[in-house]
Amino acid sequence: MIRLTSAARGKLAVIRVEGEVQSADNQAFAEALRRLPPPPAGRMVLDLSALEYLNSRGLGDLMLFYQDARARGQEMAAAGARPAVLKVMRVVGLDRFVPCFDTVEAAERAWSGR
Amino acid sequence: MTDLPPGGELADLRKENSRLRRRLAELAASSDTFLSVATHDLRTPLASLRLVAELLAQPGRVNEDSASLLGIMQRSVEQMESLVNDVLNASRLSHPGDRLRLTEFELNMLVEDQLAGLFPVAMSKRIALDASLSPRAGKIRADRDRTGQMLTNLIGNALKFTPTGGTVVVATDGGGDWVECSVSDTGPGLEPGDREALFRAFSRASAVPTGGEPSTGLGLYITRRIAEAHGGTVGADGSPGRGSTFHFRLPRAAMEQPGGDADAEEGGR
Questions:
Q1: B194-209 burial, b for 16+ CB within 10 Å, e for fewer?
Q2: CATH of the domain at A41
Q3: Chain B CB within 8 Å of residue A57 CB
Q4: Which of A23, A104, B55, B231 could form a disulfide with B128 if both were Cys (CB 3.0 to 4.6 A apart)?
Q5: pTM above 0.80, yes or no
Q6: CB proximity B113 to A under 8 Å
Q7: B233 has which bridge partners?
Q8: What is the third-level CATH fold of B102-251?
Q9: Which residues in chain A touch residue B126, judged by CB atoms under 8 angstroms apart?
Q10: B29 at the A interface (CB within 8 A)?
C-alpha cells in the first residue's frame, strides 16, 4: 500500500511517500506521481522516511518522474531514505541526479544557501 | 550369515582399501589444484579482454558497425567469465581444506544488498522485484559471502527465466533455530523431471533464459553445496506454466567444521 501527500514548506513542495511499493502497488504509485501538483517555486523534496520498500518498477517510475520534472525545469531532492531504498537509488545512480539528504530540513538548508 | 574372510585376507583387504582411499584423495586434490590453477589462469586474460573491450566501446572511438561487434565480444567475455567463476566456485566447495568463514549478520540486510545489486537487471527486463522480508529472519551465523552467493544465484536465475513484465518475489522467514529464504517467479515453471535434476552439476531446466542470458548449469548446484555445507537444505516447487519457487533453509547458527569438509557426496569434480 502506497500513499503520497504533498505539502508546502516555505518555497519547497514536500512530497511524503508512505508505505511500500510492491508489484501490487506499482500502478497506484505511478498514477500518484503523475497526479502530483507542480511545485510552486519549482523545487520539491521527496520525503522518503516512511517508504519501507521500493521495487524495481517503482524505482523506474521514480526515475521517469525525475526526468519529467527536470524537463519542466524543476529541481528535486530526496530526504530520509531508509538504507534499503537508498541502496537501490545508488545502484542505478539516481542519487547523482537527485541529491539525497538525511532530513527534509537538511535539504531545505542546502537549497536556502544557494 | 556371511562368512568373514580369514584374518590374513581381511588384513590385506584393509590395506588395499586404505591404499585406494589415499590414491582417491590424491587424485581429488590434484583435480582441485588443476581446476584452481586453470580457472585462475583463464580469469587474467579474460579480465584484460574485458577492459580492452570496455575502453574501445567508449563513445566516439569506433563506428557503429564496430560497436555492434564489440557488444558481441563483451557479451561473450561476460559469458566466459561467468562459466570460469562457476567452475572455480564449484571446485572450491569440493576442497576439503576450504572452510566456511562463519560470522554473525542480519539475513535481511544481506538480502537487501543482493537485491539492490540485481535491480538494474530487473529494470532492464521490466520485472518487478518485490521483497517480503520478515523480522523473524533476524541474525544468523553463517558464511556471509557464500550466503550472498546463494541469494544471487537464486534471484539471478529467477530474473533469467522470468519474461519481461513478470514478477520476482524474495521472501525471508525464520524460527527458533532456523531461517529460510525463498525466491518465487512468474516464469515458465518446472517440468516434472526438473525438480531433482536442477541441483546437480551442469544440469539445465527445460526452460531457457528469456533474455538469452548465459547459463552454466552450475548455479543451483553451487547453491545446494553451500546450503549443505552449513547443515541446511535447498528445494524447488512449481509446475509447468505456473512459475516456480526456489528456497533454502539454514540453521540459525551453522556449526564450525572440524575438518572444514564442505564436500558430501557425488558430483562437482
A1: bbeebbbbeeebebee
A2: 3.30.750.24
A3: yes
A4: A23
A5: no
A6: yes
A7: B249
A8: Heat Shock Protein 90 (3.30.565)
A9: 57, 60
A10: no
